[in-house]
Amino acid sequence: MRAKFFLIISFCIIFSISSIVETRELSIQQLEERKKADLERKKAREKRGKKNFQKKISITTDVVFISKEREVPPVLSNLDPILEDEGFYGVKLAIEDNLTTGRFLGHDYKAEFHRVLLDEDIGIEFKKLMKKGKKFFVVDFNHNELLSLMKIPGIEEVLIFNTRAKSDSLRNEECRKNFFHIAPSYSILSDALTQYLVKKKWKKWFLVTGPKKNDRLYADALKKSAKKFNIKIKDQKTWDFTSDLRRTAGKEVPIFTKTSNYDVLVVADEAGEFGEYLAYRTWDPRPVVGTQGLKPNSWHRTHEQWGATQMQNRFRRESGRWMTEVDYHSWTAVRAIGESITRTNSNNVRDVQEYMLGDKFGLGAYKGVKVSFRSWNGQLRQPVLLAAPRSMVSVSPQDGYIHPVSELDTLGKDRPESSCKF
Length: 422
What we know:
Elements lengths: L27 H21 L10 E10 L19 H18 L1 E10 L5 H10 L4 E5 L2 H8 L8 E4 L16 E3 L4 H14 L4 E6 L3 H16 L3 E7 L6 H12 L7 E5 L19 E3 L4 E3 L10 H12 L5 H20 L4 H8 L6 E2 L5 E4 L6 E2 L2 E5 L2 E6 L26
């Protein structure tokens, strides 16, 4: 397989981190100083020689991160970076974390990074990796690409960790027992947002949906959440303008948003083509929430609680940029693999799979509570961060929402609602 951005690499990194409590985010200068200090410590370790495992290596686990090259659409703003390394540093840091325990248990971890080019077939390239004996795959694929993996003969013999696709159907009628979903589904995100809007008593919505498939999927989830929490959708419109909003937003948005009285404008614009231009331009002065404005996220750069500041700074020292959701999902997936192998003392696919889906699995993931997988569909249950571009606003599930098993199961489709049949 040819690699355009990622080289196929295998590494085993032993990394020691000093315990430093930060109360605020580090500046670029401080990050560079830390990076320089990290490099000096690395050189010192290399001079002393490679630190040996405390026990003889008994288990070696290869984790494969695989992504797909994509045609890059025009960005909404020149401020938006075009990232081609999402997931890479998340996996790298997670391998380091796994080895912190693995050194003492004799468990070694290695990572390979692959990128499928535009003219390459995902199925063919994936089969090549399976023939090499790879068993654990962290994938940055969309909905249709994941469906194509499900058709590969023998795919049930490996574990797949989804870091991007949010479609509810992947967790329901199209679910597979060996497919684990780190990314929250649309229904989880919409429920998390709706719980907060109910708390604020913003119960009359104006829903604006973009023209693309993912926009419609998100909008459908929002409608179901509205029904679930007794919300009134006063009006619905589809954004189908094709003009350059950077020049015409001041004229088109007020007319488009002139409608019956509502409390909040809820937007479903996954690609970010128009949502940013709705705020401050609506006919009536109303907050904007959804994919823009106040947004539900699995990870956000403003998140600082429960040790997240240290994770943010550590990631920035390594990568030179902010940690994205795909980065966080990749880190979580590799850590989940490591945690399961540590507890079961086995990297057998069946042992790891059964442990992850069991009641004993729990992983600290900088969210205040341990995250775990839903046994009925492989979805990671986790708190959802509600954040504006530069401010953390709240965390869902909101206070008062109770559940017999876990309050996290008040988000998304619970077991009785699920159509997943393993």
